[in-house]
Amino acid sequence: MVDVLSPTTPDQLRDAVGWALGSETPLEIIGSGSKRAFGHSVRTNAVLDCSKLSGILFYQPEELVISARAGTPLADIKAALAEKNQQFHFEPGNFPALLDGSSGPDAGTIGGLVACNLAGPRRIKVGAARDHLLGFEAVSGRAEDFKSGGRVMKNVTGFDLSKLMAGSFGTLGVMHTVTLKVMPNDETSATVIVACSDPRAAGKAMTIAMGSENEVSAAAWIAPEDAPHLDVPLAGEYGSGLVALRVEGPKPSVAWRADALCRALAGFGECHEVPESHSHSIWKVVANVAPFVASENTGSVLWRVSVPPASGGDICAQLIEKTGGRAMMDWAGGLIWLQIAASDAAGTPDAMAGTIRDIVANVGGQANLVRASDEIRQATPVFHPEDPALARINARIKENLDPKGILNPGRIAPVSLNGEGA
Amino acid sequence: MLRMPEPDQHTLARRKDIIAAMRDIIPSQGGVIVDDDQLRPYECDGLMAYRQLPMIVVLPENTAQVAAILKYCHTNKIRVVPRGAGTGLSGGALPMADAITISMMKFNRVLDIDWDNRAAVVQPGVTNLGITRAVEHKGFYYAPDPSSQIACSIGGNIAENSGGVHCLKYGLTTNNVLGVEMVTIEGEILRVGGKGLDQAGYDLLGIITGSEGLLGIVTEVTVRILRKPETARALLLGFNSSEEGGNCVAAIIAAGIIPGGLEMMDAPAIKATEEFVQAGYPLDVEALLLVELDGPQVEVDYLIDRVGKIAKDCGAVYSRISENEEERLLFWSGRKNAFPAIGRISPDYMCMDGTIPRGRLSEVLTGMQDLSKKHGLGVANVFHAGDGNLHPLIMFDANKAGDLEKAEAFGADILKLCVAVGGVLSGEHGIGVEKRDLMGEMFTTDDMKHQERIKMAFDEDQLLNPGKVFPTLHGCGELKTLHAKAVADKFPDIPRF
């Protein structure tokens, strides 16, 4: 039987971890459990459920800061920010819907968002959750309270452990409180759409846009078959792939920059500006990776590939050719979503992973398996293999903060593939 | 007074052998410095109150030499102090009598500019401004701009996670660095991050940035470069109280405007800088805001107008807009010369670096005036108002007996006040030795031990920059021991299902 512990206070959380440490009982750590299917499955007899560590502790719009218990539903936080016309600048999409077909909008908790270091289209300009986490409080695998950072924007007091906790998948400590930077919504935004079906050409167009003076805040490419998701028929018809480029800011500036982008990219294909109302829905589609959500793509696997942005077009084309999959680019080519239908997958999952990782290795990229059956995720390393020298440092960090390996064992590296787990 | 770890006599006794070993690794002339008169320039960094001659100084020329030096030091248990340009203000590069100071200033080349990925690959001794100089001919620049940018090195910027006046809009060093090559104390060469945005495993780049030379020596840096905004204009806004000035800052941000620069100065700072550089600052206001908007011309003109209106509503009694680039630079010349301006009216000054939640500004400034009376020393304030980073400049005379101690006590009180209102000890200068003994104001022993455990993952023998950042060095054994709190098997308070 699986034992579920649901602490309601930071003290109870420490006691729960203390019990696990004392009895050497490994814990699976969850918030709402919305991203449980990401990474390797954690097989433990005890679950530490943090969803009852919930509530906004303070939100000061004029200070651009919000602090909440880690188990606070993301939907609650987003609603509070929207009320003050603010947002997380790193623009996280609905990642859980990529994993689970039954996931609702804004699923997940703020702690889970940070622990997975999620980010959406604006990452190319402003960074990811890691760049906006000002501070945290947690209990380490030693059952001791520890914290780092604070609530102010500028802080170099001690090591920046916030960066380490963001993206650590709960393997170093269980956060109970997180404090993040927020930003005002821009006065307006506009999206420039360029007809472009070839990913290599799209990559070039995005590179030119990002290198221009126009402060592009997001750049994505959608393949012809997925373009209807954006609902912007060029010349009244669908059929072409689309490059989408977003500019945000004060009205006169947005209009000026959108015009400048259209002029700069006219050579790539038909180009036009989408007004603000529609611009928002386009970037929701991109942030949520709507063409590849689990509910509409049963049985397919989804890869998330990260490469230097300017090489994205070429890598994307190679991935499509070699795997027969469908792809979409975000972060001006720096992020490629690759979906491979079960019927198209040639060879074993491991062979597929090898093919993909060989292609991205040439440019120093990473390929992580986001959605796949539990069976595939047990057989194939989900996360891109670490460089051995870095892996040694990472293993020591893990050992020093969680010496008995009780926090999410195997989440990053499955125990069966690596005796130590992580 | 500052206590550093006791010199290791065994190391000092081997000085000759160590010099010979270093000369084997760096054969070129001048690569190993051993004579007192030549060691003298390395005895302190920008925190000149503390001085110590290093045992020797080495100037390696390539990564292989750095790896060989560190491997030797690791094998022979010799302490190491990394050093960049030596402009740091917290004593992070303060030498030790038994340590080798490794100066990285021969690593001074720009290696590659990748325009398509908007990234520059440089060696760590390249100056902050040197990066901008290397890319500005194509309209690019490197955004973080500490006021020492003409001299400070990018390697040092990474060690301290340096900021500058543009942080609110463009982020700190940590948000602008993409990757590093770093050599560990074991002599292993790590490549962390790169031109892509994700890295496998834990965010080592994030933890290396701001680690003050305690985790390794950076030998190559990849940073993001940005297109220079088409134009920039600045406003000078004067207020009758710092509270009104602070309210104006809050109102600008509440209106959704994030200026490229948002600086504040109090009356003593305004007076000192105006006498020094004649920037045209008004002398009859209590607080002066310098607001810079950058971007396309059409955006800047629009926002200048909006900020002007907000300032008027907030009670600004003085308002001036830069009409050309020359005038904009003149506005900045006052702010950028604030430190030397104070140096002109006071024999010595100590620059503090706390950050506070902006809303507590007027309370903190009032508290600082009370502390000024208590300690009998003057203080002038310049302030990165947009992000709450204060730079109080404490005026004293080091030649007057007891004045330095008074200034240190005053500075410590200011930082304690910052922490008490929800702020932090350092916004951009780092802890180094200067604020080391105040770490306990912000962190519990357990907090600091967790930081030291990260240090241990890189440098178990604590050979890299010992005596910096952490007030007490816990032994490795102590850090590894589990102090599991005895928790009863049953804990009825926790809901279970």
From TrEMBL, chain A:
UniProt cross-references to SUPFAM superfamilies, sorted A to Z: FAD-binding/transporter-associated domain-like (SSF56176), FAD-linked oxidases, C-terminal domain (SSF55103)
Domain FAD-binding PCMH-type as annotated: residue spans: 1-185
PANTHER family the UniProt entry points to: D-LACTATE DEHYDROGENASE (PTHR11748), GLYCOLATE OXIDASE SUBUNIT GLCE (PTHR11748:SF103)
Molecular function in Gene Ontology: catalytic activity; FAD binding
Record key words, sorted: FAD, Flavoprotein
InterPro entries: FAD-bd_PCMH, FAD-bd_PCMH-like_sf, FAD-bd_PCMH_sub2, FAD-linked_Oxase-like_C, Oxid_FAD_bind_N, Vanillyl_alc_oxidase_C-sub2
Top-level taxon: Bacteria
NCBIfam families: PRK11282.1
Protein name, entry field: Glycolate oxidase
Keyword set includes Flavoprotein: yes
PROSITE patterns associated with the record: FAD_PCMH (PS51387)
TrEMBL record, chain B:
Flavoprotein listed as a keyword: yes
Keywords, ordered alphabetically: FAD, Flavoprotein, Oxidoreductase
EC number: 1.1.3.15
Residues covered by the FAD-binding PCMH-type domain: 50-228
GO molecular function, one term: (S)-2-hydroxy-acid oxidase activity
A Pfam family matched in the record: FAD-oxidase_C
Cofactor: FAD
Organism superkingdom: Bacteria
PANTHER family (UniProt xref): GLYCOLATE OXIDASE SUBUNIT GLCD
UniProt protein name: Glycolate oxidase
Organism: Thalassospira tepidiphila
